[in-house]
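hey m, so remember when u said the tokens were messed up on ur end? i reran from scratch. heres the input so u can diff it against urs
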Amino acid sequence: MTAEKFRQNLLGHLGDLKRSLATETGDWIVKGFIDVYRNIYTISVDTKVISKIIELLLFPVISRFGVEHGYKMVLSEHQNHYPDITFVVPDDTKIALDLKSTYRTGPQTVKGFTLGAFTGYFRQRQSTKNITFPYKEYAAHFVLGVIYSRREEVLDERRVHKLDELQDIVSVVKDFTFLLQEKWRLAGERPGSGNTKNIGSVRDLESLVKGTGPFASYGLEVFDDYWINYLTADMARAIDSEVPYRNLAQYWKWRDRARARR
């Protein structure tokens, strides 16, 4: 099983994935939460809430995909473990699939994804800490990404709706775009937001959909070497070192100096 064959198989279910999230007009099919009294409470634009609901909606389609192709699905046992889903194909190839969602910040830009740690299991590739199987056992690492637009209208989250008002409730997100790429093709040159030691994605919409991030022209080996050796300022201070590079241009100079010292 090749990575591209897996990708094409999953892309064959793209129509089902889209229909699991959106109406024909592009609105999110989810309107809110319902209680046993048939009261509906609207959803906020909290990205964590939206992301989790999107995952729940996609899961039945992904499960059917696995059954159809004879792939065994192994789910992450813990929320912070990588990846979300491991597919084990009949020839025992293991493929990682992470489900990610983010929102548009402009016509051609998005907030971006985090693509997993660049420390821990990423560097210690025989480790089983925070990962379903050792990183070295995976033949490929895919991201199924969902990009959406947030509604500009301000919704009154205090209002409680009745079931017969369902069609009057405005969906908080709309206009979904899907992507399926190996994560090295989506990766940027800097960590994700905050102080986390996670690989950050590019934020250009076209680059995400087409998988043409800065590492796409160099290949997986350069991506691995870049992020295995990447140091944040805190990491560098901890080992009494300088930050070796912050982008690919600096990385190539650092790599040339490293080769010259051999």
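this time it looks ok to me. The mean pLDDT is 94. if urs says something different then somethings off w ur setup not the seq
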